[in-house]
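tool_call: predict_structure(chain=1)
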Amino acid sequence: MRKRIAIIGGGIAGLAAAVRLRDLDPLTDIVVYERSGSLGGKLHTGDLDGLTVERGAESFLNSAADGGESAAVALARRLGLDLVHPAARPAALAIQGRLAPIPGGTLVGVPGDLSLLDGVALPKAHADRDTGRPLLAPGQDIAVGKLVRDRYGDEVVDRLVDPMLGGVYAGRADQLSLRVTMPQLAATAETERTLSGAVRAAQARSKRVPGRPVFAAVDGGMTRLIAAAAAESGARVVLDATVRELGRTATGRWKLIFGPVPSPQVDEVDAVIVAVPAAPAARLLGRSFALDYASVALAGMAFVAELPDMSGFLVPPGEGTLVKAATFFTTKWPHLAAEGGPAIVRVSLGRAGEEDRLQLADASLLAVARRELSDLIGVELPEPVDSWVQRWGGGLPQYAPGHADRVSELRAGLPPGLALAGAAFDGVGIPVCVASGERAADDVSKFLKETR
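tool_result:
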């Protein structure tokens, strides 16, 4: 009998699950329910002065921890998409109003050799001493900031780790889980007795292939990845369809109630993958699962101006700016630059806890972005020839210590035939979300085979 599977959520995790389900069983009937009017979630390609510029994630890791292709690269190749890579350009940190090169040899800002900090941050003297026992007990999770402050001091956290983590999560090191955000370091901290030793051990375990670019992107934009995944999956896509209830029928199937309250629609399926943020997921599951989110905004601006020869820079929270990062897009991605055309800058604004600072009209937010960008690079930038603002309200999960254990407990209590996927549970980043969706597909496919 032909099986029917519902995927609630049409972001990259849900679509990766749909592709995997199609590969596992070409006859499966797959339905994707998406509450908004388009697929892709936070992957959205836009236009700026005639050039292709991402309004969400601009790239993904090229390699997995084992040295092979990342899950995102594997999916893109599976879909027949070409990849592009950023140019080798340095990046900087904004320290006391000036741009300084990011020190090399760090693991997400955590140095393994304190002599390489080049004056960017002064470590606490003699704090990283060998106490005769590992930094962490097996399975223990603490905040990144707690571990690094105790061992290296405040400046290393405030000037290096915070902006590096903030560039990915828009959060603060003192609130983010080590085990979720830096799993390699968490693993080596269970055996190493100094932080520098744990960092070096984590770096040694990395099987990065020499000469392979760190990052990749889909040629033509991330929207092509979304469209190709949806098409290849063969799933029926239902847009503007909020699934409001999830329950069981008398025969053991799953019943979904979706659509507007005055005229609800009902569907019955054999298995369900939930790939939505934490709050709607908890509501559908009827279980408690709290997760904070940070809101950010992106400002895209096209300038007729000369910019520093770098890929961009990060700004530590202590600098007090609304700008937390900037990418010199046409420098970082030269294949997008038009000869004689404008320089494209993409600025990220706002951090966790700063939602009130983003409550400005688009024009005012662009003015702040241009003024702070001018101050940081030391050049008065002209009015942009084209611009846009993209807001991602509640867009980035903030993983508090213990998050992985809470997710494991949640999954352990799920009935067979129901799986979870996506950033709310397994971490941010396109490869992580793709792998999460694929694992969920494997789980429900195994369940359906066992119940035939």
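agent: The chain is about 30% helix and 25% strand. Proceeding to next step.
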